[in-house]
Backbone:
């Protein structure tokens, strides 16, 4: 194995940081060279990550491209990175969105361009690192490192109520993270004798299950951090504010990658580390997921602000993902992972389109729009395709994910059943049927948006000679459109990549190992 | 037989759609037309070749194009199944589709969005072919939703009109309600059998409960797609689209998908006789309901739309009584004459510069004789007047309903009365509906083509160009000729026509209902009654709307049944009822939930409330932070005292 | 010699340190003049130094567990002295700076730190 | 015996000097008595065998640091009315009481039985005295061998302090 091969992952992770260093060295100026550097480095990151995808194969090792260097051996943490199929998909998604994000706000960001480019590049490294980390401390460092550039993106380059939104975003996320940090420390202190303790994810995973009583609290601590990030109902209210106030690039990152951190955290950390607790809480999470689906959809129908509406649609979509994860069947979990990617692409693209609209009209009010399709037909066509993906039409990526989730949930016999009176309702079937109603509501609100914005007579926002997509915007939209159709028609490579981690996940969480008996009298 | 060319049938129109949609704006018009038309024609030719070469013993072509997705135990192939049923429907879809493409060249020529139109139309053909040819439920669902999408796009084709855009959205959403039922049906079947392919579902043993639930869920899908009670409301509004679209999608092909699906899943439905009865009942009620509304509509396309809903009801009676061949046969014949009717109405609208109101037509036979003749032929067909196709196919359904044995084992509840008389009820309802059908179709014909011209001044009614009339003639001819597939089997036994006989042709395709097919009844009594009914409807229409005084026909009708006609004219207020019951409460609920729960309780009370609490505590703490360093020092000294006390006096011995 | 140790164990030095510390602390709490506050802090630091030295001189165990032995106490005092020098320099600089802008060295007039 | 006399003498000097710092209204008297206090303290250190520290106390504290204080006091040249009155407020009283109570607790505890007159402390002290404890060599070995990193860092601290003092006091650079 050549040096390059052994360090490829690390190189990709830190390539944007190298760009950030370069940006920092460049003098402050009015020109576009900061954005240019950011674009080149994010594009290079994406290109460099392509070999990861092409040379990825599920070998005997659980993680590919693994690299481990001691960092502080006496404290048990190390620089340990690697990718399994699930992480790889999200890693690729992040790398793909990187250059698109830089291009998306090219014309819109005019103040503090240097800092903006810095924030974007550092954020990208943090995001990539979060997916690749295999050490809990490293993971936590990357996880928190995402927070700062994102906080600045919202707070500095956002719109009117940006400070409120940024603080809200920060506090919400941080409260969860702190509990997770405590749980990480607990795991560490429990992982061996002093001097032999470890933060290493793989080592912790192989140590076997903790007592059920302990798992419960640790799982809750991890789950809270991730649930806020997802965000699960009722912890979602930071999301509409953050999305509404963030600039387009921030919204794309937020929807495309940051929300995935929560669901990724569930599938990578919270559930496998604490399998019996996960198994025990899964129905509750599934119920919250379904509430999120229906509630989020209803919220969408009540909005008058375009970005806020799409933010709420994320709540609904992520509800699907959480439902799939907690169904604990191979179909549903595969669907959930696929849906993470799908949501990143389609909702990212939606925010991209909204950003393009906003750049022209400077309004997010739905009432101001109408008849845009007449003046900007290509924009309308792109938006409709993305909408179709968002409502899960067959042939687009959204369908495969939603279908697998619903089918997997429907057949989830392990969830047990509720008894109401004498009637017995299988939890899986009930939840799948309820969640399916979200499919209807999704069509209701998304098509309403399409009609409101693009159809009908031309209203205020469309009237002053709105330009259609320009070349730069095409470059941002086209890859996402291609991805939508490509994943819709040929999702199998993605499903193949995630097969092994999903199977292991099911193996570990789906059928809980006999947890060591808890202390007598502590009967669970 | 495994083949490798089946995927071409849907792929060609899809490629056409892609070219038209992506490049159409820049292509010369002639090229675009050529691409759109030739791809469909090629599909038709492939379909025809395949159809003629179907092997005699196992008349099936099958192809697995690629593995679409598989996860866990689920395995979904993009596979195609070409048997006599799907083959025939392929021919109908591509054939009628091609004719409508031809017609559209004339109809849409002046519209600036013509390239978009042809892209959508080709996409529709591709989706419909996927629906028909799919070899598993998921592939079928792809087409199922795909046609819904095209329907949405084409209904809202003239999107600058808010109402038309709304109609498209309504169609999609109502269809989605059904689609969710379909999805759940797939899940139930997969849960029970572990497979989604027709081949395995066709032989899988199912318990009555599973079969019933699955059949019911799938039927909900059919209700949505095929516009049956209670989800039919989108179809009349769907007439907002260009008229050829109404002909192709909302009459001939897409809306019949539900019937096709029930026929395709005959094994499942015959395993669930209760649901089968429900299918027939829903069909009968819808047929009657829509026919009644159709008597009092003034928009020529709406009349045809309600007649479509009504005819679909007939088809469901057919499949619901276990006579899957009868239902699908009516599907085929209906495709021809209804497409002809719609295209005829399109020609009328075209010739009257956009006028759709029957009250402002009249006497058009003089101005557009070709349209009038073909329209008349199709009207004869739909009214069930001997001997044109509709007569045979509709009567076959009614006769099968009367003699059905599908419900012999069915009781109303455990130990309740047997439902043997259900078939008779269906027959009576169906016959009465046939009478009304004949009446309103002739009313429509008389109002439009006979009597004096009542149209707007300054409009010069004119015949359409040849490119539009020739499809009319072909479809009219097909409406007549397709009678051969409906001739009773005993009549044609032994002759070459036997191979064309639909019952014989599809013989082994469908599972027989539990009581077995009805056999040994004479068709004659049914024919006589049907003949009488057809003419009676014509007579009634003549009484009220005789050519000479067609204009005042509605007044006479209203004078006869004032309240009833008012109810018909207002479509039984169903739209208003749904609006009141579902639509407005849902939106108000969403807004209320947002304001009260999301914004006030979660965000206001819990989130900002806790922030407020922190602020109060901080305000309290701030009073101690007055900036006086010496006070800080004093407090520190107190703290040191406490620590020293704790360490030195409390803890050590 | 021996008698002396007998008579003067660590406790005498510790009591002296406590009193000196109290004097310094009282100065910090009571006096308004910032320079005197600073000098009182020096007193407190010296009281601490005294404790270090006393404990280094009279250890309860025979051998120090730390590398460097009981001289570590002296090393600590050394660092305290260095830090105190630095602190005095910066503290006096601050006093000068504040005096320039406020023409006062009274600490109770410095309250711009309050929220 | 002589050492005991010396101890009480020095201790009295230390306390007297210290109390002058706190009680004198004019800082210049305070500073001068602080110098005296430090000298007496250096004597105490000698009694504790901390010879090097005692020398440093005189050189650094009584010398360098106190010169700085005196210099600043002269520089500011406060007028009589600017010196400020000693004002007792509630919190000052609380602080004073707390300080005195703390000292009392420590003293009471120190005089208690933690350090018995005979026993290990005494034996260890005798042992230590024989090893040249507190001399330049002993302390130097500790500083340069065991605590070399903090020792070097101290230089950094002093550098920072110099820069900070210049920046803060200079106003505009």
Residues:
């Amino acid at each position: 194995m050549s040096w390059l091969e052994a360090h490829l992952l690390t190189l990709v992770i830190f390539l944007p940081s190298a760009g950030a260093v370069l940006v920092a060295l460049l003098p402050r100026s009015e020109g576009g060279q900061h954005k240019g550097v950011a674009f080149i480095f994010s594009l290079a990151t994406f290109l460099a990550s392509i070999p990861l995808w092409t040379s990825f194969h599920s070998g005997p090792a659980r993680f590919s491209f693994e690299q481990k260097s001691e960092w502080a051996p006496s404290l048990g943490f190390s620089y340990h990175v690697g990718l399994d199929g699930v992480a790889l998909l999200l890693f690729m998604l992040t790398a793909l969105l990187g250059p698109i994000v830089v291009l998306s706000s090219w014309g819109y960001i005019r103040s503090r361009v240097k800092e903006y480019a810095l924030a974007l590049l550092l954020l990208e490294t943090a995001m990539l690192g979060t997916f690749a980390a295999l050490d809990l401390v490293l993971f936590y460092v990357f996880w928190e490192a995402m927070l700062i550039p994102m906080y600045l993106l919202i707070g500095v380059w956002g719109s009117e109520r940006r400070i409120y939104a940024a603080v809200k975003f920060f506090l919400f996320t941080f409260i969860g993270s702190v509990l997770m940090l405590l749980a990480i420390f607990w795991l560490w202190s429990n992982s061996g004798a002093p001097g032999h303790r470890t933060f290493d994810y793989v080592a912790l995973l192989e140590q076997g299950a903790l007592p059920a009583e302990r798992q419960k609290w640790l799982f809750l601590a991890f789950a809270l951090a991730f649930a806020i990030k997802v965000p699960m109902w009722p912890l979602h209210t930071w999301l509409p504010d953050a999305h509404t106030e963030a600039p387009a690039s921030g919204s794309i990152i937020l929807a495309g990658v940051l929300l995935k951190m929560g669901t990724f955290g569930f599938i990578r950390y919270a559930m496998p580390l604490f399998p019996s607790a996960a198994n025990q809480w899964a129905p509750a999470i599934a119920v919250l997921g379904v509430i999120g689906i229906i509630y989020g959809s209803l919220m969408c129908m009540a909005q008058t602000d375009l970005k806020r509406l799409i933010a709420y649609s994320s709540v609904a979509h992520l509800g699907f993902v959480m439902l799939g994860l907690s169904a604990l069947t191979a179909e549903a979990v595969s669907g959930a992972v696929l849906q993470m990617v799908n949501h990143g692409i389609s909702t990212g693209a939606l925010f991209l389109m909204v950003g393009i609209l906003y750049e022209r009209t400077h309004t997010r009010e739905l009432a101001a729009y109408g008849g845009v399709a007449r003046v900007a037909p290509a924009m309308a066509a792109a938006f409709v395709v993305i909408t179709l993906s968002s409502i899960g039409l067959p042939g687009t990526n959204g369908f495969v994910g939603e279908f697998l989730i619903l089918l997997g949930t429907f057949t989830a016999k392990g969830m047990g059943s509720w008894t109401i009176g004498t009637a017995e309702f299988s939890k899986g079937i009930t939840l799948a049927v309820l969640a399916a109603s979200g499919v209807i509501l999704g069509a209701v609100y998304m098509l309403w948006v399409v009609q409101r914005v693009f159809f009908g007579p031309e209203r205020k926002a469309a009237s002053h000679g709105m330009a259609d997509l320009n070349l730069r915007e095409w470059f941002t939209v086209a890859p996402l459109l291609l991805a939508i159709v490509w994943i819709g028609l040929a999702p199998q490579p993605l499903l193949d990549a995630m097969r092994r981690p999903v199977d292991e996940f099911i193996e570990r969480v789906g059928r809980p190992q006999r947890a060591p008996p808890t202390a007598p009298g502590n009967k669970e | 037989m495994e083949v490798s060319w089946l995927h071409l049938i849907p792929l060609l129109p899809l490629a056409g759609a892609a070219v038209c949609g992506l490049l159409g704006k820049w292509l010369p018009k002639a090229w675009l037309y050529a691409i759109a038309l030739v791809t469909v024609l090629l599909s038709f030719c492939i379909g025809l070749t395949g159809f003629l070469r179907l092997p005699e013993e196992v008349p099936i072509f099958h192809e697995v194009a690629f593995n679409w997705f598989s996860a866990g135990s689920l395995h979904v192939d993009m596979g195609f199944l070409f048997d006599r049923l799907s083959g025939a429907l392929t021919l109908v879809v591509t054939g009628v589709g091609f004719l409508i493409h031809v017609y559209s060249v004339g109809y849409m020529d002046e519209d600036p969005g013509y390239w978009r139109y042809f892209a959508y139309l080709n996409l529709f053909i591709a989706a419909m072919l996927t629906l028909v040819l799919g070899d598993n439920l998921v592939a079928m669902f792809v087409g199922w939703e795909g046609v819904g999408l095209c329907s949405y796009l084409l209904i809202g084709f003239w999107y600058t009109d808010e109402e038309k855009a709304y109609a498209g959205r309504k169609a999609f959403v109502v269809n989605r309600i059904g689609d969710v039922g379909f999805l759940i049906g797939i899940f139930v079947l997969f849960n029970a059998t572990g497979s989604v392919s027709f081949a395995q579902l066709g032989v899988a043993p199912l318990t009555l409960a599973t079969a019933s639930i699955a059949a019911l869920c799938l039927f909900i899908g059919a209700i949505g797609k095929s516009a049956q009670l209670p989800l039919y409301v989108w179809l009349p509004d769907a007439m907002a689209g260009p008229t050829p679209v109404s002909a192709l999608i909302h009459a001939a092909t897409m809306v019949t998908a539900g019937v096709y699906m029930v026929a395709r899943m005959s094994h499942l439905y015959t395993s669930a006789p209760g649901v089968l009865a429900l299918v027939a009942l829903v069909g009968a009620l819808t047929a009657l309901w829509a026919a009644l509304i159709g008597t009092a509509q003034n928009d020529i396309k709406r009349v045809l739309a309600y007649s479509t809903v009504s005819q679909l009801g007939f088809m469901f009676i057919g499949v619901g009584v276990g006579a899957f061949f009868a239902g699908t046969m009516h599907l085929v014949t209906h495709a021809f004459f209804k497409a002809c009717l719609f295209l005829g109405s399109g020609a009328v609208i075209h010739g009257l510069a956009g006028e759709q109101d029957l009250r402002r037509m009249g006497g058009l036979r003089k101005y557009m004789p070709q349209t009038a003749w073909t329209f008349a032929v199709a009207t004869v067909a739909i009214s069930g007047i001997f001997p044109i196709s509709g007569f045979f196919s509709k009567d076959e359904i009614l006769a099968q309903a009367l003699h059905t044995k599908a419900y012999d084992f069915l009781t109303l509840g455990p130990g309740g009365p047997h439902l043997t008389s259900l078939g008779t009820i269906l027959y009576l309802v169906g016959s009465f509906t046939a009478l009304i059908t004949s009446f309103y179709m002739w009313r429509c014909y008389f109002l439009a083509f006979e009597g004096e011209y009542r149209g707007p001044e300054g409009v010069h009614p004119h015949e359409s160009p040849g490119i539009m009339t020739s499809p009319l003639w072909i479809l009219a001819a097909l409406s007549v000729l397709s009678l051969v597939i409906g001739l009773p089997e005993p009549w044609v036994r032994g002759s070459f026509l036997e191979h064309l006989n639909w019952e014989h042709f599809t013989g082994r395709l469908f599972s027989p209902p539990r009581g077995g097919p009805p056999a040994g009844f004479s068709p004659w009594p049914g024919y006589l009654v049907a003949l009488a009914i057809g003419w009676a409807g014509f007579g009634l229409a003549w009484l009220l709307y005789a050519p000479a005084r067609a204009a005042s026909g509605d007044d006479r009708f209203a004078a006869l049944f004032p309240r009833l006609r008012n109810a018909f004219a207002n479509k039984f207020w169903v739209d208003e009822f749904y609006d009141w019951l579902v639509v407005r409460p849902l939106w108000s609920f969403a807004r209320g939930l947002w304001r009260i729960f999301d914004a006030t309780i979660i965000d206001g009370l819990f989130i900002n409330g806790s922030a407020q609490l922190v602020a109060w505590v901080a305000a309290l703490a701030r009073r101690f932070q007055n900036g006086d360093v010496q006070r800080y020092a004093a407090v520190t000294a107190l703290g040191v005292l406490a620590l020293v006390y704790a360490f030195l006096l409390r803890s050590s011995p | 010699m021996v008698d002396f140790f007998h008579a003067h164990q660590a406790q005498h030095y510790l009591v002296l340190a406590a009193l000196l510390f109290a004097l310094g602390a009282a100065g910090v709490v009571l006096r308004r003049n910032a320079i005197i506050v600073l000098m009182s802090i020096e007193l407190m630091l010296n009281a601490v130094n005294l404790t270090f030295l006393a404990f280094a001189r009279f250890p309860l165990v025979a051998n120090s567990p730390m590398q460097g032995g009981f001289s570590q106490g002296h090393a600590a005092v050394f660092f305290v002295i260095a830090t105190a020098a630095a602190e005095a320099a910066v503290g006096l600089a601050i006093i000068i700076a504040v005096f320039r802008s406020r023409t006062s060295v009274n600490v109770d007039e410095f309250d711009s730190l309050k929220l | 015996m002589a050492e005991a006399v010396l101890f009480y003498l020095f201790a009295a000097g230390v306390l007297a000097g210290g109390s002058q710092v706190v009680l004198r209204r004019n800082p210049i008297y305070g500073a001068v008595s602080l110098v005296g206090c430090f000298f007496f303290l250096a004597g105490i250190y000698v009694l504790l065998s901390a010879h090097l520290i005692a020398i440093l106390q005189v050189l650094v504290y009584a010398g360098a640091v106190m010169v700085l204080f005196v210099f600043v006091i002269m520089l500011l040249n406060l007028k009589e009315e600017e010196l400020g009155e000693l004002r007792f407020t509630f919190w000052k009283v609380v602080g004073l009481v707390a300080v005195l109570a703390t000292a009392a607790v420590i003293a009471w505890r120190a005089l208690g039985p933690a350090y018995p007159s005979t026993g290990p402390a005494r034996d260890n002290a005798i042992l230590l005295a024989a090893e040249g404890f507190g001399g330049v060599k002993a302390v130097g070995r500790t500083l340069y061998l065991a605590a070399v990193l903090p020792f070097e860092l101290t230089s950094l601290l002093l550098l920072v302090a110099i820069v900070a003092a210049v920046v803060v006091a200079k106003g505009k650079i």
User: Anything to note?
Assistant: Confidence is low (pLDDT under 50) at residues 512-524 of chain A.
